[in-house]
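Ticket #633: bound-state structure for magnesium ion.
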Amino acid sequence: MNNEESYLKIFGIDLGTTNSVMAIVEVGQPVVVSNAEGFRTTPSVVAYTKNKDALVGQVAKRQSVLNPENTFSSIKRFMGAKYSELSLEAKEVSYKVTGDDRDNIKVVCSNLDRLFSPEEISSQILRKLTNDVSLYMGQQINQAVITVPAYFNDAQRQATRDAGRIAGLEVKRIINEPTAASLAYGLEKKDDEVVLIFDLGGGTFDVSILEVGDGVFEVLSTSGDTKLGGDDFDRKIVNFILKNFKEKENIDLTGDPQALQRLTEAAEKAKIELSNLSETTISLPFITAGSDGPKHIEETLSRVKFEKLSEDLINRCRLPVESAIKDAKIDRNAINELVLVGGSTRIPAVQNLVSTIVNKDANQSVNPDEVVAIGAAVQGGVLAGEVKNILLLDVTPLSLGVETVGSLMTIMIPRNTTIPVKKSEIFSTAQDNQNSVDVEVLQGERKLSKDNKKLGNFRLEGIESASRGVPQIEVTFEIDANGILSVTGKDKKTGKQQRISIQNPSNLNKEDVEQMIKEAEESALADQQKKDKIDLKNQADLLCYQTEKQLKELDIKDTNTVTKINSLIANLRESIQNDGFDNDSIKSMMQELQQTLQTLLKDENTTPNSENEKTNKENSDDDNVIDTNFTEE
Ligand code: ADP
Ligand code: MG
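RESOLUTION: The complex was predicted; output attached.
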């Protein structure tokens, strides 16, 4: 084996709300890998057809108009969230979102008559990317680095990890998207620079300020909005058109999923065009029918109007930038580079806004669609030992702490602290003769503990009776390089201690995940079996055809054997008509047919016609074969 290639390959995945991108280090350099269809980005869309086939990526996106309820896009918005936490706006998708008895989110797939968790839908995207990268590399790759928005909490990160596991991936590391972007960006950089990464994608917004230099990336601060992205801009245009249509035709299209889907696609197209043009038209013939015949949408939209419609969205980009600058404790003039990431940063008004705040033009040398995946691949290369001289310092995205008297959150590790990190603090009892304390571990920025996320808890018992405030309980928070938090409580007097490791704050419990992995593997197996069956059916069919052809071409005296062959053919043909046929019995029938034919040919002292080779090839695309490939179109 070539030494150069003997590294264990770990590829990078930018698992985006709208689009996903994959990259891998090849001969020391990160490269974006095209999917099987030949595109560098893959729409993060999964669909199930009436025939119960799963479609992923471009094929899924393309049929979304006809099958909106079974087409799952923007699933990332639901990852690791609870149903009761969802805003009305978040539920504005073409498919049905519901909650189960544990308040976990499920999406409804009517074509399969079942529910899916967001993790399962995501796993379909990851599975496709994994298959495609393996195809490209000519070897099975099953280790990956996956990126997530900086503001993802532990449940969301864990959900992403679970999606990877369901897809059969070993997720080596979850890293922040802006960190990945800076990692890709900083590769060629040598001097110390302060970089502001502004990432506005389809569904999320992240701002990060980093210090980059000498192969070290240090995140100074992060901020953002998990519910702001290009989808919101699309929705502004959609609502504008809906309103105009209602006024003009007195027809409300909001209840018509097909019309809405078409409108959403047209709105996105118009938005993209307005990044380069000052005016565009949205034209949707036959959008619906009124009592007086078909209705059409024909609207002109100017960039100025679009900017008016989306003014509040543009303004919402301002605050996170300001707070990131404040958290980094730097002057805005100290920012050396402005890096734009994500498709929505191509909107001129967005570029203007950020350039004005930072007082700097954006650096254009980074491809905004690919930079995150490139960074993830670099991190993969670092973990595999293929890329050297890079030390990545990551930070905690949210503050971590414990609940103290009055149900308040006391912060142990503030957000934006570089990890790995270890911090201890002494607490005491709140009442006289209190023999135990409950340590409740929290994550978030809110003052009251109930407003933050509970990550876990434990009870430290056996504290010797004493007046309140006397016992000394040392609480230690430790986060390792993988971002896994462990919390220890120790009674200084007795030395008794309790420890919890918080690494599975996932919505899905272990059994759920294992069940989903099993199902995914089974369905992969079932797909393979289906394919094997179709292949076998084709082979059998071809054999029957060729044998008949050969019989016809030969002048045969042994009519007994011919009769036998014909009956074997008839049997075989009939057997493969039944979809539930047994592979082995088909194989043995084929073998018998072949052997009988061979005997006949030997007896007749004839050699097989050389024409047959050709016939064989010509027939390799008969009806059945085309049928097999149809789903891959
Ligand atoms: P994500 O990281 O969320 O998957 P991307 O970075 O792929 O998102 O960005 C997708 C978003 O960018 C979509 O909302 C898309 O409409 C938008 N977008 C892509 N190109 C342009 C453009 N030229 N002008 C405006 N928006 C664009
Ligand atoms: Mg992105």
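RESOLUTION NOTES: DSSP finds 16 helices and 28 strands in the chain.
TICKET STATUS: resolved
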